Amino acid sequence: MYGDIFEEEMNRETVFRDASKLMPEYVPQVLVHREEEFRQLTRFFKPVLENRSSQRVLITGSVGVGKTVLARRFGAELEKAAGSRGMNLTYLHINCRKDRTIYSVIAKILQHFNPRWPYYGLGPEKLLNDVVNYLNSRDAYLTVTLDELDFFVQQNGPNLVYSLTRTAEERGGPNRISLIAIARDKSFLRSLDAATQSTFMHNVIALDRYSASQLKDILLSRIREAFKHGVVEEDTVDLIADIASRWGDARFALELLWRAGMAADAEAAGVVTPEHARKAKAEVYPEIKREVLRDLQLHEKLTLLAVARKLNLSKRAYAFTGDVEKTYRVVCEEYREEPRRHTQFWEYLQRLNALGVVDIKPSGLGQRGQTLKISIQEVPAEWLEKEMEKLLREK
Ligand SMILES: Nc1ncnc2c1ncn2[C@@H]1O[C@H](COP(=O)(O)OP(=O)(O)OP(=O)(O)O)[C@@H](O)[C@H]1O
Ligand SMILES: [Mg+2]
């Protein structure tokens, strides 16, 4: 019987040619409406290729305006252009929301060059020295993108940027490490030292939100890659572009498109209609990024599930930390995980708060503000509960 189900699902009529082309990680060959910004970035990096100097650039813009994809696309071209000029340059893209400590960012750089590099138990300074030695010994260059750096600096302070910009300089010789920082806006620069601040300040590429017609072009170019020919109705594209233009967010537009395709497949409709887009809209919330939920660590996921479940069950606006912690223990049991201690649970909550997934404030109850009240403001608790269960099942 299950064999039949398998075959049936495999043979099911689908509107997709390749749905993976709609996933947030996919880097399209062509970036629509970002030629000027790409050119600007190239101009900033010209001296790196011509004079073998180093560069620092900051890319800013709100959610889903193409910061990550611009940097990745640029990095690929930069490597190519350097190679054809006989320059050994590596581009590395690091997401600082995922690699959350200075140590793990630098270890990532080292490991890129040699996965077997012995780095356990060594401090970040030592590791960074190793990177510089490595680059020197091979006459090699490195451009690192520190993506979602604002979030990282808020949590860890300015040391990472400081070390990456200074280590080589302090040792004399050429600085072989260039940086592309990505952040929502420039405000995080204030917590960096004056010298670093000013280099970034002079090299800012600010990406605007996309208009409806720009979003339509982005959608159309992705539809050609991801869908079978002619299955997405033009009205559907217009509607999705309109909906997403309120935020100017291409990620939201592409997610709507993907879910609309899924809705069409669920009905074996063969075409993606505006009604499928409307259905999709009912289950996507641009306020919370899917990747943010997906990239949470296991116990952060369990904690978030506990918050969502508590709020969904109680139907109240707020949940108290003590109650959520009890729910967390139940959730852990359900997923056969050993619950972590109170202090760690506390840290998970703080991190969820920092990511903007939950909102925490003092309850006014208990001693010295020990009790906090937690709310979920951006999405229905019921929706979040289901999402978290889905993600935890995938593990
Ligand atoms: N100009 C574009 N052409 C084609 N696809 C694009 C373009 N801009 C964005 N996208 C796509 O939209 C999605 C979101 O883009 P991206 O991840 O680069 O946004 P972001 O600015 O980094 O957002 P965040 O601040 O949330 O990290 C990705 O799937 C990306 O491929
Ligand atoms: Mg990004």
Automatic annotation (TrEMBL):
It comes from the Archaea. Residues 304-388 form the Cdc6 C-terminal domain. One of its GO terms (molecular function) is ATP binding. The keyword Lyase does not apply. SUPFAM superfamilies: P-loop containing nucleoside triphosphate hydrolases, Winged helix' DNA-binding domain. Pfam families: AAA_16 (PF13191), Cdc6_lid (PF22703), WHD_Cdc6 (PF09079). Signal peptide: none annotated. InterPro entries: AAA_16, Cdc6_C, Cdc6_lid, ORC1/CDC6, Orc1/Cdc6_arc, P-loop_NTPase, WH-like_DNA-bd_sf, WH_DNA-bd_sf. Keywords: ATP-binding, DNA replication, Nucleotide-binding. ATP binds at residues 65-69, 210, 222. GO terms for biological process: DNA replication. Belongs to the CDC6/cdc18 family. Involved in regulation of DNA replication. NCBIfam families: orc1/cdc6 family replication initiation protein, PRK00411.1-1. This is ORC1-type DNA replication protein. It comes from Hadarchaeum yellowstonense.
